[in-house]
User: What shape does this take?
Amino acid sequence: MFVLISLIFSCAILAALFHYSKKRQTILQRKFETLVLLRQLLGLCREHRQLTHRALSDSVNDQQLKTINTLYEELVRCSDHLVSIAPFDNRPMYRIFQLKLKAMHNDWHEHNISRNQIVHGKTIRHCMFLMDEIAIAWLIESEREDLNDEYHLNWQQVLDSMEVLTQLRICIPESRSTDGFLRLKFYCDKTRRKLNQLSLISPLSIASPNSIDAIHQLTELSSAESLTLEDEELYLITSDISAVIAQVYDQMLSDMSESLYLPLPKISYAY
Assistant: This one.
């Protein structure tokens, strides 16, 4: 009788452990899949900004519109999937993000280049903040204080770099005036220093050819006596910098995910 009771008790413990393990695996898989989808949306937002910027710079043609609309369909499909897999309590914040994605697309043709850059920049930052929430929750649940401290320190560097880049973009439309050019030079130098700080987090991202070229151009602009670049060229520099910052953050997430669960799929960042 005692053996039977012990056997039943042991089976109950094993069943409970199996249930807990399966539940934990489901939670980990959901967090992982959410990060993968947000990474995909981040890349699509960057591509949408690039295509709409090009369309606003030139006379938009039917082929450009078709490409942009096809990309938007992928954005909607991906964001629909994101909402569908999100826990019930978190769905409202992903629906809000989806509305922002739709507004970003529906209004782009009404904006000038500067406004288009700002709207896309806000949407991209919103996406990164959602990724940050997933990362923080995952780190807290893992009880890995070492990873938690490292992530928070690095995220602050990424966040600061994003804010400085935003200020640099805001300077571009006014850069032809004397005061505007001085502000542009100031934020070029500040952005350059932020990129150098990011090299401590992800040396390979900062060592990429596009990153090195962007840092070189920022250095020249910060010490220039006059502005020789057109606004379009300045925006292209900021797009390269944005890609570098996104790459650094993506490397942070990949390292974290690999330590806690599985490595994230490899992606390529279009500059």
The mean pLDDT is 87. The radius of gyration is 23 Å. The domain at 144-271 is CATH 1.20.120 (Four Helix Bundle (Hemerythrin (Met), subunit A)).
